[in-house]
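WARN retry 2 of 3 for item q-0093 after timeout on previous attempt; input resubmitted unchanged.
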Amino acid sequence: MSSSPRRILLISEHADPLATPGVGYQGGQNVYVRELATRLARLGAETDVLCRADSPAQPVREQITPGAQVIRVQAGPAGPWPRDRFGEVLDEFIQQADAAWRVAGGYDLVHSHYWYSGLTGLHLAREYGAPLAHSHMSIGAVRRASLDGDPGAAQEALFADRHRAECTLARQADALTAYYPGDAEDQQQMLGASPERLHTVPPGVDTTVHRPLDRREARQRTSLPADVPIVLFTGRLEARKGLADLIAAMPAILRAHPRTRLVVVGGTRHRTDADSAAALTAIRELGLQDQVLMAGSVPQQETAAYYSAADVTVAPSRYEPYGLVAVESLACGVPAVVADVGGLAWIVGDESVGDRVPPRDPDAIAAAVAGVLDRGPGAYHRACLDRVADGLTAEHWVDGIQRMYRAVYGTVRTH
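OK item q-0093 returned
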């Protein structure tokens, strides 16, 4: 990493890189930060990831890979803490970040993820003079626009606080990442970000992990039936991910392809969380108990087997800043039907690798899935792999992050 920072602090306040994705708030950010830390360490940068401890039983320091570790700090009451209430423990988190900085002897660069982490990173950058790179991960104004109706006074106040913070970060961070060109435009128009500070760096996947596996072997590994069409949903089960719309589409999918099974990867294995309970209720009401398998969360390294076992992955999110699930599916040679929102629409692009549908539209989901199943699993394989090779690998992504780091490394902060 010539001319690059040698000691890097990544801040990811609510998303522990070693947590299992698909449970609670754990999802794409965890995967993103873990993969970034791993890649930076392999390239010779000593990398720490700072996050809030979810349990006193967790080790304060835990290795991610040689050269990279997570540092968990206590902030607020012991135990899990809602992401939307992180402002209540932010001051303590910043104090702990200060202490961690001093123990480590400082860092060459700070890279924060999400707005609470950004405020923490901005404090450290001001206090110690290190350059700050920031990844919004999502934009509050875009998230607000995706909601139905009035979210209530408390949520409106939170969105207002978030917007002010994101505007501050857009002005004062030394560098900003954007997922794709439309995200860069949103940051300029909504947050006042300077084009000179924006670096469009689409997150990519590790193609040694997410790669095509033999379908028969993949179905054996996942204990899925060998001779039926498989529709895959993977991700958190919260409402904005659109699982309810996919479940509602299943009766129409079954009319076109009667033997189809929907496999849901995400949520808790014991199905006791509220989101899993809501999904199970919808499944029972539609009489789909035999057609839908709730697989629970699985380790990230095992998801390739589920993608490879599937005929199509569906990401029907009502709002999605990026959509790493779609990239992972394409990397396994499996087409994706996605909501025509955010990064999902940009990733899928045209019908060569799947289809795009309006959000919140079960009929459109059903028609698109049936169309993909009509063509058969092999029809999209080559185009899916080509799409990932064209700038959506982890190597492309980390190369872009390094270029951003080099652009600000050695910057002397004056604000």
